[in-house]
């Protein structure tokens, strides 16, 4: 189970946290903690690859930073090229000589998908280059409403966040830990 891998590698923490957004939550996900271990990354992406058996795609593209290792490992296990986009002056772009051919089927690779913001920015770039995006792959699917593109997540996780004044953990007098990662804002 992917959820066990997340816990074993401390990529999923449980407790009481102050997020960089200022909100409080009872769980915190940082996929880099899992992906730092190549054997865990291999297992996690392997679970997702099982779900992709009937999906026809030519290339994987992950938005940096979170999507880079996921893209690489997915490409390694499926024998497809693994590209990444990066943010330049606020815009998500394909650089470094990476190319998308007209009509190529593309899978987007992410660590976590919440609102799909970085995925959609990547989709826009891929489509402007003539590619056709067929889905989004992620380790943790945190979406709370359906996106207009299929999401193939390793595990589904709904993490509630609270303003301090409404936080049930604060009300119970549990002290919080401060965590900093822009990752959570996605
Ligand atoms: Zn709180």
TrEMBL record:
Chemical reaction(s) catalysed: orotidine 5'-phosphate + diphosphate = orotate + 5-phospho-alpha-D-ribose 1-diphosphate
Binding locations of orotate: 114, 142
UniProt GO molecular function: magnesium ion binding; orotate phosphoribosyltransferase activity
Quaternary structure note: Homodimer.
Superkingdom assignment: Bacteria
GO biological process: 'de novo' UMP biosynthetic process; pyrimidine nucleobase biosynthetic process
Protein name: Orotate phosphoribosyltransferase
Keywords: Glycosyltransferase, Magnesium, Pyrimidine biosynthesis, Transferase
Residues covered by the Phosphoribosyltransferase domain: 33-158
Lineage of the organism: Bacteria, Bacillati, Bacillota, Tissierellia, Tissierellales
Enzyme superclass (EC): transferase
Pfam families registered for this protein in UniProt: Pribosyltran
Family (UniProt): Belongs to the purine/pyrimidine phosphoribosyltransferase family. PyrE subfamily.
Species of the source: Anaerosalibacter bizertensis
Purpose: Catalyzes the transfer of a ribosyl phosphate group from 5-phosphoribose 1-diphosphate to orotate, leading to the formation of orotidine monophosphate (OMP).
Binding locations of 5-phospho-alpha-D-ribose 1-diphosphate: 87, 110-118
InterPro entries: OPRT, Orotate_PRibTrfase_bac, PRTase-like, PRTase_dom
Cofactor(s) recorded in Swiss-Prot or TrEMBL: Mg(2+)
